[in-house]
């Protein structure tokens, strides 16, 4: 049974992970509960497409993580629940057994309280709505017409508090709805599909995205990414959509600070623009982008940048009102220890 469930995890990760309009770089995560105690979940820093039966995931005792969230008292002022919840997750890793090798996604908490199969993607189509003020009402209309109910989660920083909010919202469902597959949209973040049926989880994820595309009138293929090596650990963006967007919007560094849409933009793009040794160079005159890093990291940045520009472009074309993250939320992500760990791991893996 465990072997079958691990194979299901790999298949789900490969299917979602190979579509850059669903996940970019090391973003998104997928989990499968192996039994009443153990859960396999993508390891932090890995791409979904890198997951195999031998590597790229962590097995945790999710029953103990869930028990923590069932019994924690979040009313203590000034207490660092984020750190505590990460410590609880790390403490309950049962595989791999070597210390400090891998850690589960920081979102392991909400995976623990949801169904057997959980897909969390950063779908560009879902995020067109998740990053616009009109999105909630429109998405409810789109999915209700197809017999789906959605749970809309206002923006909350990933981690402890997001898990508590999702747990709270799930607890308010009646018993029949608790047994059904669930669709959750996290504002300025992404999409979650939770189901106890393997095939259904994948089918609902696909259907939700197709319904959004159809209603928004999005046709044609999602743009492909292309990088050209121009030096040792130096790559130039050859993605036409990115070049055209920068040229038409006269994009400079300040653009990204003005329009913070979701955490992965801040982690992969903004942080690499403003680092002491910037990994991204934008030539305002030639409209070219150069990445001073490894191919794998350059690819992750390019995919994230494409998704970011694509979402902005679609919101503008549709006449929607852009909803950005608050300054408080952007500051939190910039200082987020879990993301520092993820970036460090990505760098080490690229060596």
The CATH C-level class name of the largest domain: Alpha Beta
Low-confidence stretches: none
Write down the overall mean pLDDT. Answer: 93
Q: What is the helical fraction, as a range of percent?
A: 40-55%
- Give the name of the CATH superfamily of the largest domain: Class II aldolase/adducin N-terminal domain
Which of globular, elongated, flat, extended, rod-shaped describes the shape? globular
InterPro entries: Aldolase_II/adducin_N, Aldolase_II/adducin_N_sf
Protein name: Class II aldolase/adducin family protein
Pfam families: Aldolase_II
Organism: Caldicellulosiruptor saccharolyticus (strain ATCC 43494 / DSM 8903 / Tp8T 6331)
Description:
This protein has 351 residues and is of the alpha+beta class. It folds into 2 domains: 2-216, 3-Layer(aba) Sandwich (L-fuculose-1-phosphate Aldolase), CATH 3.40.225.10; 227-349, no CATH class. Helix content is 48%, strand content 16%. The radius of gyration is 20 Å and the shape is globular. The two termini are 36 Å apart. It comes from Caldicellulosiruptor saccharolyticus (strain ATCC 43494 / DSM 8903 / Tp8T 6331). Residues 8-216 form the Class II aldolase/adducin N-terminal domain.
